């Protein structure tokens, strides 16, 4: 078990986001828009205050034909990065990886103030759909998995089939997850999908990879989100309601090839990552102690498995957890109140950053009233990446403990 962190306290003091969806905007446009929104969200911090810059992004080389993007973002935002700059790439967990590196740099005393920006431009127009799909297949092992058609939908369909076989998870329970998150997104002003939807509509949508239907799948999304991290002294000068990072865990118990995964009905990597994060944060009972959780619902089955691996439900009982209403905003733990990936969309590098911003705004009472969690003090963000082989978890608290 990893022991509690004993270095400097670090807080997320605020941030901002672009509108998410199919945007008529370039990668550079989104980076500038996201950066401006971030500074607008923290008016007491200016570009000249930023010492470190961390940019989470997955495939700008394929979608926008651009690499070496972190210095470019600094140039676009007018930031003279005096200490540290980096681009992080960890597939769907790239944004949380950027957060983790910024947190560690400040905790270690290398920086006092950092900007974390997640950016992804994924929609290239109807004529480029094959290229968009082939780019997504590169996240898996292209030589062994991608070329055999194992893109995300059939891969997660395997998990759904196996979880149903082993534990009796139902098609209706999958639909409840998607309907919950899309309904939450309908109350979120930047979300890609903003329509209330009933579980029956999920079940009746087009079949993609049985048992998964169209509305069980997260979208192809353009968007950016940013947050500013500071050490304790500086954070207290900026805000009285920060989100303090109290724990972080990451685990990769396999390679990237599907044949090396330890299970097709669970993610022991997520369990290990969350246990490490809980140990650092001093959390003994996550269901009792965590008020709000932003977890990686790239497909509806993902959220059900994550209930189990993050310690919200016993293994095999994730379907019953949603059926009993325990993950709704007014349930035992509010899971994905902004709408998650299924509702907000999934601009890969921006997702983890947006999750952290959501928890911060929940603490600050700055989200839409209809989806505000009642007096939250502890939050969790979770991302999986690649073939589900890597899982990342971060704990945020309204008090640095």
UniProtKB/TrEMBL annotation:
<dbReference type="InterPro" id="IPR016039">
    <property type="entry name" value="Thiolase-like"/>
</dbReference>
<feature type="domain" description="Thiolase C-terminal">
    <location>
        <begin position="256"/>
        <end position="397"/>
    </location>
</feature>
<dbReference type="InterPro" id="IPR002155">
    <property type="entry name" value="Thiolase"/>
</dbReference>
<dbReference type="InterPro" id="IPR020616">
    <property type="entry name" value="Thiolase_N"/>
</dbReference>
<dbReference type="Pfam" id="PF22691">
    <property type="entry name" value="Thiolase_C_1"/>
</dbReference>
<dbReference type="GO" id="GO:0016747">
    <property type="term" value="F:acyltransferase activity, transferring groups other than amino-acyl groups"/>
</dbReference>
<feature type="domain" description="Thiolase N-terminal">
    <location>
        <begin position="10"/>
        <end position="204"/>
    </location>
</feature>
<dbReference type="InterPro" id="IPR055140">
    <property type="entry name" value="Thiolase_C_2"/>
</dbReference>
<keyword id="KW-0414">Isoprene biosynthesis</keyword>
<dbReference type="Pfam" id="PF00108">
    <property type="entry name" value="Thiolase_N"/>
</dbReference>
<dbReference type="GO" id="GO:0008299">
    <property type="term" value="P:isoprenoid biosynthetic process"/>
</dbReference>
<protein>
    <submittedName>
        <fullName>Thiolase domain-containing protein</fullName>
    </submittedName>
</protein>
């Amino acid at each position: 078990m990893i022991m509690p962190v004993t270095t400097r306290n670090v807080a997320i003091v605020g941030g901002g986001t672009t509108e998410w969806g199919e945007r008529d905007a370039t990668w550079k446009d989104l980076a500038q828009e996201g950066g401006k929104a971030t500074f607008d969200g923290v008016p007491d911090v200016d570009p000249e205050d930023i010492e470190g810059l961390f940019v989470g992004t997955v495939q700008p080389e394929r979608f926008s034909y651009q690499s070496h993007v972190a210095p470019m973002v600094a140039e676009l935002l007018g930031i003279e990065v005096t200490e540290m700059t980096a681009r992080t790439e960890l597939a769907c967990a790239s944004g949380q990886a950027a957060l983790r590196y910024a947190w560690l740099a400040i905790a270690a005393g290398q920086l006092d103030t950092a900007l974390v920006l997640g950016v992804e431009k994924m929609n290239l127009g109807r004529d480029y759909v094959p290229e968009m799909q082939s780019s997504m297949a590169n996240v898996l092992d292209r030589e062994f998995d991608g070329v055999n058609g194992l893109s995300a939908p059939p891969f997660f369909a395997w998990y759904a089939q196996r979880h149903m076989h082993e534990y009796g998870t139902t098609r209706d329970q999958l639909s409840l997850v998607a309907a919950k998150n899309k309904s939450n997104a309908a109350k979120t002003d930047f979300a890609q999908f903003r329509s209330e939807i009933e579980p029956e509509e999920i079940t009746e949508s087009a079949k993609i990879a049985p048992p998964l239907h169209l509305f069980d799948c997260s979208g192809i999304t353009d968007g950016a989100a940013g947050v500013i991290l500071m050490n304790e002294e500086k954070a207290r000068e900026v805000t009285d309601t920060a989100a303090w990072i109290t724990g972080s865990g990451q685990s990769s118990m396999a390679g990237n090839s599907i044949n090396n995964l330890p299970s097709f009905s669970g993610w022991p990597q997520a369990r290990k990552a969350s246990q490490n994060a809980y140990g650092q944060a001093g959390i003994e009972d996550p269901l009792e102690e965590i008020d709000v959780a932003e977890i990686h619902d790239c497909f509806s089955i993902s959220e059900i498995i994550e209930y189990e691996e993050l310690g919200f439900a016993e293994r095999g009982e994730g379907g019953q957890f949603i059926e009993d209403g325990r993950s709704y905003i007014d349930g035992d733990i509010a899971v994905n109140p902004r709408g998650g990936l299924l509702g907000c969309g999934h601009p890969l590098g921006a997702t983890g950053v947006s999750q952290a911003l959501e928890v911060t705004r929940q603490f600050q009472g700055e989200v839409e009233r209809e989806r505000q969690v009642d007096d939250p003090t502890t939050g969790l963000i979770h991302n999986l990446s690649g073939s589900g082989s890597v899982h990342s978890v971060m704990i945020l608290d309204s008090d640095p403990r």
